[in-house]
Amino acid sequence: MSDSEDAGSDGSQQRLHRPSLSRKMRRSIRKVKKSIQKMTVDDGEEETKPIHVVPERLAALSIRTGFSRNEICKIYRAFKQHCPGGAATPNDLRPAYAKLFPLGDSTKYAQVVFNTFDTNKDGLVSFGDFLTGLSLIVKGTAEEKLSWIFGLYDMNGDGHITRHEMLFIVSAIYEMVRTSQTIQRAVNRHVDRLFEKMDLNKDGVISREEFMTSCMNDQSICTQLTVFDDLW
């Protein structure tokens, strides 16, 4: 056998044992498909995975919030009835407000209150978050309560309440007790009165300082802002 024949023979054997390009491509495609399928399954599992949040220790909650251990246990039992996974979503608040205000629409107000309790903006309110917010409303000083109410109205957290933000919150409150067709004029009058009293420098927004000063000096303003605060 000549050298050229040997070389040809070796080349043929190499081609026989070398995977073809199309086979490599098919293998790569299969790997990609498997990866995509795995990612899809994992994402689906994450989306449907039930919420389960373990509460903080009782002693730590009691120290931080000022509630007694017995009070915390009672509140936790009620919380677990509505939120068995240990954390609340916006949907968990809506049925409660719907029962309190069956003639109106409490959807907007429930979302606003949820956003105030959801301090880290992860879409969940743990029992610790809920208890901390509740302690400010129930056991906080006058300044702490006003600070919480300011946060309710300061929806984007920029330290100022705009007319748009106040219109939204006041509308949400009115909608709980009246039909939407009849409230807009009343809402506008309500907001106009509040801005007239609270926007002290007339720059079109209410700063935290203006808010606190106005509420401390005029109890009627605080009453108008907190007409539903005991129902939060």
UniProtKB/TrEMBL annotation:
Residues 15-36 have a biased composition (Basic residues). One of its GO terms (molecular function) is calcium ion binding. InterPro entries: EF-hand-dom_pair, EF_Hand_1_Ca_BS, EF_hand_dom, Recoverin. The keyword Transferase does not apply. It comes from the Eukaryota. Keywords: Calcium, Metal-binding, Repeat. Belongs to the recoverin family. This is Kv channel-interacting protein 4. It comes from Neodiprion lecontei (Redheaded pine sawfly).
